[in-house]
Design goal:
Radius of gyration: 23 Å
Protein name: DUF3097 domain-containing protein
Shape: globular
Strand order of the largest sheet: 1-7-6-2-3-4-5
Number of helices: 7
Order of helices and strands: EEEEEEEEHEHEHEHHHH
Structural class: alpha/beta
Number of strands: 11
Strand content: 15-25%
Oligomer: single chain
Largest sheet: 7 strands, mixed
Organism: Streptomyces virginiae (Streptomyces cinnamonensis)
Helix content: 25-40%
């Protein structure tokens, strides 16, 4: 009886047939036999350019069995060429070439802070300019009822408000409930900070860290991830990894779209 001898050849070196996968933009793969993992940013004849989570780019030959996708060996191939799809904005809307920004509406969207405003601009900026919707930030929601009263919402000047950590029983939920004007829509997401609305996969991390209560959340995130404790620089890194709506959690996407629809349904022209 012949003694069994296990095949110790690395999987990526074995000759079995493996699937061919088109090297579409944003596809995340690992280069076989290395520790380099990145997203596809370009694909030329015979080569693919990958960008890792630190923004470093490298070019690799598209050799058979040369990459791992979700741990499985694959062969990357050049994406098929077909009819050009309509250009789209970062939010997924069909782009309008040459469209001019509309004169600003009387209606507004308010968000809690600068990071929220920058993220909304990153993904929905083109759409907002076409619709003439201006986004402003509040620096917190404690004074929201007074801010709403000062704004003076009306059917032709609607106000939409995006609130962080809007969950049952929270301070934010009590403040939001105190705003009852039919021309104001207050919605929110469940995250402690809008940072968490960016998918961990966009940053190359398995999940957002759990930060102990009583500790500054953003600083705690930097510590847990081994980033320098500079929250401004950390946010710029996070924002740089957001290329489109695909990098955001659906919970935020739905709320922002809801606000845009509400504000633009007003009667101002």
């Amino acid at each position: 009886m012949r003694e069994y001898s296990p095949d110790l050849t690395p999987q990526w070196k074995r000759p079995e047939a493996v699937p061919e996968v088109a090297a579409e933009p944003d596809l995340v793969v690992e280069v076989a036999g290395t520790d380099f993992c990145g997203a596809v940013v370009a694909c030329e004849a015979g080569t693919v350019t990958l960008e890792d989570r630190f923004g470093k780019r490298r070019v690799f030959p598209m050799e058979p069995r040369g990459f791992l996708l979700d741990g499985a060996v694959v062969t990357l191939v050049r994406p098929p060429r077909g009819p050009s799809a309509p250009a789209r904005t970062a939010s997924g809307s069909i782009a309008v070439p040459g469209a001019r920004a509309r004169v600003a509406r009387a209606g507004r969207i308010y968000v809690e802070g600068r990071h929220d405003a920058e993220l909304v601009e990153r993904v929905w900026g083109d759409d907002l300019r076409i619709e003439g919707v201006v986004v402003e930030y509040l620096e917190g929601v404690d004074d929201l009822p007074a801010v709403v009263a000062q704004f003076g919402p009306a059917p032709d000047a609607r106000l939409g408000v995006l609130v962080d950590h809007l969950v049952p029983g929270s301070k934010e939920s009590r403040i939001a409930a105190s705003v009852t004007s039919p021309d104001v829509l207050v919605v929110g997401h469940p995250y402690v900070d809008v940072w968490q609305a960016v998918k961990p996969s966009a940053l190359g991390i398995p999940a957002w860290p759990v930060v102990p209560r009583g500790q500054d959340w953003k600083t705690g995130v930097c510590r847990a991830l081994g980033w320098p404790e500079n929250t401004g620089a950390a946010w710029q890194h996070i924002l740089s990894r957001v290329g489109s709506y695909k990098d955001l959690e659906p919970t935020l996407l739905g709320r922002v779209e809801e606000l845009i629809d509400f504000v633009t349904a007003g009667g101002d022209a």
